[in-house]
Batch of 3 targets.
Target 1
Amino acid sequence: MDVDGGGMSTDINNININHPLHARSKAIHQFTQQTLPACKPVLTPAWVIGTFFLMGVVFIPVGLISLHASQSVNEIVDRYDIDCVPDTFKSNKIAYIKNASTPKSCHRYLKVDKPMKAPIYIYYQLDNFYQNHRRYVKSRSEDQLLHGLRYNKTSSCEPQAFENGLPIVPCGLVAWSLFNDTYSFSRGTKKLKVERKNIAWKSDRNHKFGTQVYPFNFQNGSFIGGGKLDKTIPLSEQEDLIVWMRTAAFPSFRKLYGRIEEDLEEGDIVVVRLMNNYNTYSFGGTKMLVLSTSSWLGGNNSFLGVAYIFVGSSSILIALIFLLLHVKNPRPYGDTTYLSGNRKDISS
């Protein structure tokens, strides 16, 4: 019996050791005591200096390539908000923009200094316009944009939730302040066609704006904020609105207006007929028209290339400093057998 009992206890111990719960508790114990097998590289001067040199060798060429791609983009930028104000209103621009009887038509002439290959993107640029203001950003209803009048909880849209006792679709300050300057282009006697489709994000068109949601009671108040919307077209197809509703993070921003699907040659004169409707004079803002090509990296933005070059140059500088310090004041290596990962070997 004693022998059998001893054998039985031995079997039980073996079962406990091999049990999954025991293995799990052992792993947890090793994790909490930081004794799990791990890669613990010894950061010798050669490794550190070599790593920084490698970062510099990789980052600087990537930065130069990105910078070259950005600089290959051709842009024409024209500020028109001041020149398009008649001389009689130069001293009172706010009165000009608020006077509906004053003609807002304006002509601009843009010279093409470098060849521009299609597609040529048309942007409007606003400065000193804080779309990132918390009260402004929150003044909208995502559910109403998707479901229309079926969703009536629009308290977040105040003060543009109701007008004359009726709900506004789309509600909120963001939609109410819709940009409404318009542009048309010609080269010589030929009018340049502006493609206005597919200028908004596909995800916004398909998932954020309802295909059966139509503007209702929009811009019917005494105080008009910006552009009006076609009541016969659903919000999912009104891409000017969709582009505008994606609020910008900074007070200076560009938004896509359309595309010109024709090449422009060096020396061409592009005639722009625009309607200067949007009021930026009340808050000291500016308006610009931008024609731009694109590269494989996107538009004209040198930040990424400069950042890569800066990080790469800094890495090489740090590597050189470490190398000089190591050559001037070398230090003997410690005995790696005393590291925590090697203590078991010592004890054995």
Target 2
Amino acid sequence: MYPYTLTQFTRANPFCTPVMVLHEAEEQGQDTPVEPHLKRTLAAASLEDPEVSCEYGSNKYYALCGFGGILSCGLTHTAVVPLDLIKCRIQVDPDKYKSIFTGFSVTLREDGFRGLGRGWAPTFIGYSMQGLCKFGFYEMFKSFYADMLGEENTYLWRTSLYLASSASAEFFADIALAPMEACKVRIQTQPGYANTLRECFPRMYGEEGLHGFYKGVYPLWLRQIPYTMMKFACFERTVELLYKHVVPKPRSECTKREQLMVTFMAGYIAGVFCAVVSHPADSVVSVLNKESGSSTMQVLRKLGPRGVWKGLVPRIIMIGTLTALQWFIYDSVKVYFRLPRPPPPEMPESLKKKMELASY
């Protein structure tokens, strides 16, 4: 039978899961009790709980999650502008900037300490907008897709849920980021073009129009969507594994400080994987935004298989630290505003019963 609903479609997934066994058992006429369709809410608490300030999935919840995204992405990306500057220059001019140390020494000699802060304004504005969409939309899409799947399938396919939700959110986040990213790279990698955002933005618009701000959005999607999918899915599953195998007590018994330390550890682990997955596309974006007449394929041919990996070491350091701090800040905002923070997912009781019956 062809799958007519999203729930049935998940059963046809080539990766075998308990739900396939249950589906086959039901078709064979076994007396498996049929549970009504359960709506997956992922709610950790309600307004009756004095420890939370709003309902999970409310407009206030999503708005504060977006605010947490602004702080986590805007502040952290601005803090590592000097390292990002050197990384971009290694990517676009590897002959002059051969390593991190050479890059710093050349930049300090030519531009002084102020030169290390080049591009901070478009970085702060652009990544604040990206953080708003990335974290706010992630929570919205996660709740939306979970409600479509139902409680049991949400648990069985939770990694796919994280991947789909983060990819959907990042699609819109990159549209918000692209103009400021283009300005940032132009300021950092093209000396003499512009020193500030106020100089760069009108000049780029006058010379290239809106196309100049969005010509890098496609490689930006290629860089950021895999990055964000890894960032959220790896983080969520790492938190789950840390509480299961590393932390010696349940999450409910951990203090807020201990929970935030777990968040930081999981964020750093996720950040290392993020850097590796997204680095080739990051190299293309840096060169593309520097050279006004180039296309994505031209840049790829110019860089070659080895060139796209230039600057990977500083990016691993930057993204690992960045991702850990972003998750720490984001979770701290949730704690400060007393937002619902769902614990690591557990198998629903209805699914446990079905699996017990199917094992006989």
Target 3
Amino acid sequence: MSQQHISLPAKLINGGIAGIVGVTCVFPIDLAKTRLQNQRQGQQVYKSMMDCLVKTVRSEGYFGMYRGAAVNLTLVTPEKAIKLAANDFFRHHFAKNGQGLSVFKEMLAGCGAGMCQVIVTTPMEMLKIQLQDAGRIVSVVAEQQKPVITSSSKLVATNPLLSRSYNSGTVTALATPRPASATQIARELLRTQGIQGLYKGLGATLMRDVPFSVVYFPLFANLNRLGQSSADQSSPFYWAFLSGCAAGSTAAVVVNPCDVVKTRLQSLNKGSAEEAYSGVVDCVSKILRKEGPSAFMKGAGCRALVIAPLFGIAQVMYFVGVGEYILDNSPLGVLSP
């Protein structure tokens, strides 16, 4: 696609479709990543990604692997659309003289894209993490309470945002609380903490997404350029896919320590022996002191497996021009400049 003729609606459609397709394919791995990152020493419910997925299916059923998928599918469209469109906008702005971009300008464009996307990413991640980690909390509490048969309503009392009992009267020992939905969690956060409740962990999200974009977009652009037969031709779609996968997985592993910090800060509910963190510095120091440097790479493999196909699919949609095709062959074409 020409860098001289940017159709913003087409970019938004491309990013949105790519996000929906990608998330649907890799969401179970993302759930495993969240649960692995939130594990503390001495409370390791899951040994690996596969162990996490198997135990999740056994205890929560097949659809347990898709806890939080609804909020992700709802918000990933604007999130991915903003990210890709913002990067394209900044690249176009920096290349107004018609010359190619330097690596520094490519990094600046990626930085701008990362800063724009956190408007949607932070609340999306906040809600998604509560839903994804709920099953792990149940397992942790169950392990801690094994010697004594106690009421399952204790989990409800730990944090009303994650699970509630809708049974009238006294809750019995066999009562099972119904997990809260993303809408209920959002309403409770807005009621108790205001809009800042949805943006808890904003600083950590910026720490993750800005460096990710700084690494990803220049790396992708240069890898993709290797597949071009000439400067005025696009690379084949398979090369765009492979470039997106390689750049995405590399950037994901590079910023994984920031992702671990973000996940820990945004997790509202914790096991009885899991401590809370007052901020980024406090979180980093406590993880280093109690779990060691290797804890910052928890879930790195899962995150690479999530991001690689997600951005590979995104770049294929983006460069094939699905959005342009939809706009050219539907009434939505009036949105094109």
